[in-house]
Amino acid sequence: MSYPDAYEEFKLLNIQDMKERKRRLKLPVPKHDIQISLWRTLKSFVGKDLTKVAIPVHFNEPLTFLQRLSEDLEYSDLLDKASDESITAEMRLMYLTVFSAIPYACVSRRYSKPFNPLLAETYELVREDKGYACIAEQVSHHPPITCLHAEHERWTFWQEYKMESKFRPTYFKVMPTGSVHFKVRHSNEHFSWVKPTTTIHNIILGQLWNDQEGTVTITNHTTGQKACLFFQPYKTTKHYTKIKGEVYDIDGNVVIQIKGDWTSHFQYKHVDSETWTDVWTLETDILEEKKKYWGFSPFSLQLNEPLEGIAPTDSRLRPDQRELEHGRVDEAAEEKLRLEELQRGRRKANKNANPQWFSEFTDPDTLETYHTYHGGYWESKLAEDFSTSPNIF
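The structure corresponding to this sequence follows.
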């Protein structure tokens, strides 16, 4: 099996000829303020694996984790820059290093939980305005494993998300163990990294806030070069959102320095220069009433917009999530319970839904085994034939 590369299938979409679709700028209704006892709900969860606990719908936002993972591509223009033929290998690493930190800015003040995807649930995202098409699928329920694959004319991006977690009275800690990958089409350079540990504090009492910790190492498996991004938790510094990074040459010497704040901006400079150059700044023209809409950015607001021609397993078709988006919380809770019971029934009857689009693959560069896209989704979409997809909703 070769590298995950569905480029030939992607080209069938003719994404460059698609008419740009007008997308929504707000949700159907603002988020409802729901008064419940957080301590009464959460005290029984302390010390348990939250991936195996049924969380009340009051704590959810109207997106699934498949859609949340797709938010990694909100600033895909950095991947466009990283795949530019005219830049050096070191600059390529610099752009990817900044890109690896941006998802934490996009969700830094959102503490509602995305819906857990059902086994074999999918999510497609075609952004003709950005030039990429993305497909994600839940390939395992226990332990939860979520996979994503995106194609662009100049690059391929894929990841398998899995994690370990700790839940204590004062914090919830998520430790990702899956890897993220990026490949430049013209040079065939392959990069990978593992996401940092995220901790959400004041779970029971006080204002919720989060920090990241650990060193993220972005490796170019083709040249052997690396870059590092150093996340510092609050326990080591009060300036925990400040961040530094370094890009190294083939001999391990620092050639580019990176600095910034993972909630708002990044800059870089070459070591032989005194001039810092802006790389990325969080878009500030986000809705003034953003808090009314779950803290979503305009990009996030559009992820669950109804769409025709999608697989019957697509997250947009989840009835519990759609009810919540329309503010019908009681109905959402009923639907969530129904879907969970249906999935438990399939498992007990040994009739689990089978993932359709991803399968295990051993990476010849990293020697790790993970699920990757094996093709077929976009062909099925173009043929308007998802007859092999399971009925999960």
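The CA atoms of residues 380 and 386 lie 6 Å apart.
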